[in-house]
Amino acid sequence: MINAPQINYIKCRNHKQEYRMFYTSWGSQELSDKTLICVHGLTRNSRDWDYIGDYFSKKGYYVVAPDIAGRGNSDYLNDPMGYDIPFYVADTFNLIHTLGLKNVDFLGTSMGGLIAMAMATMSHNPIRKMILNDIGAEIEKDGLTRISCYSTKQPVFDTYTLAKDYLISISNEFGDLPKYVWDNYALNSLQKNSSGKYELKRDVNLAKPLAIAAPSDKNMDLWAYWDKITIPTLVIRGELSDILSTKTVKLMQETKPDTKTVEVANAGHAPFLYSEEHFSFLEKFLEA
Fold this sequence. Notes:
The chain has a single domain (6-140, 221-287), classed as 3-Layer(aba) Sandwich (Rossmann fold). Helix content is 33%, strand content 22%. With 288 residues, it is of the alpha/beta class. An eight-stranded mixed sheet has the order 1-2-4-3-5-6-11-12, sandwiched between helices.
C-alpha cells in the first residue's frame, strides 16, 4: 500500500495569462535535505509518480511532481502555443523558487526529460543529477508520428470501463504492468466532462505546438543541447522504444563517457517506473 500524496498549487504566468499549476508531493520538505523533481510525459500527469514518490520519500527525499499546464489538475491555457518547452521550463523554475527547493535531482519522462535537458544547459541550472526516461539527444520520427496520432484526439466514453480500455490501449508501450498499476493509472488519468462523459484528464490542444515543430521526414535533433550538459546523467531506454534508439544512446555515451545507461526489458516508450527493479537502479545512480 502506497501513501497518499499531498496536492497543492502555485500561480504561474506566461505572456498571455495567469494560471494555476498544481503539484503532487511526497514526504516532508522541512525534514528532507534533498529534493527529487519528477516530470511526466506529453499527455500525462503527476500521478504517474505515485510509486516513485512513495519510495523515495521514505529514503529521505522530498519528492515533487508538477502537473504541467494543461494536464491533470492544472489549468488549461487559452493560447495552445503556450504548451511549449520554454514555458514549461519557466514554470519549473518558478516551482523551484516558489517552494524554495534545494539539492535538486530531476527525473523526467519523455517531455519531462526535455524540460530537464533545457534547464541543464542554462548558466543558472539548479539540477544536481538528471535522469532521462526514454528521451535523449535525438528523437526518432516514427515515434513522434505515433504519439501525434493519439495526442491530438480527445474521444469521450459513456462508461469508465470503456475509457479505461482505450487509455490502456494507447499506453501499452509502457510495458506489461500489473493490474493494480493499471487501475491506479486509469483512476488518475480519466475525468468526467460537463456532459457526464469520461475523457482523458488533459487539454487536447496541448499537442498543437508539437504538430507544428516536429519534422515529419527526419528525426528531431537535440544534440546541441546534449553537448552543453555537464551534470551526471542516467539515460533509461525501453528495450522496444520507437523514440530513443540504441544508436542514439551509444552516441550519447561516446560524447560523454560518464553517462550511465540502463535498458528496461519488454517496454517501449516510455517505461513506467513502479517496481523494486526500477527503484534499485534509480537509487544506485542518485546515491552514487
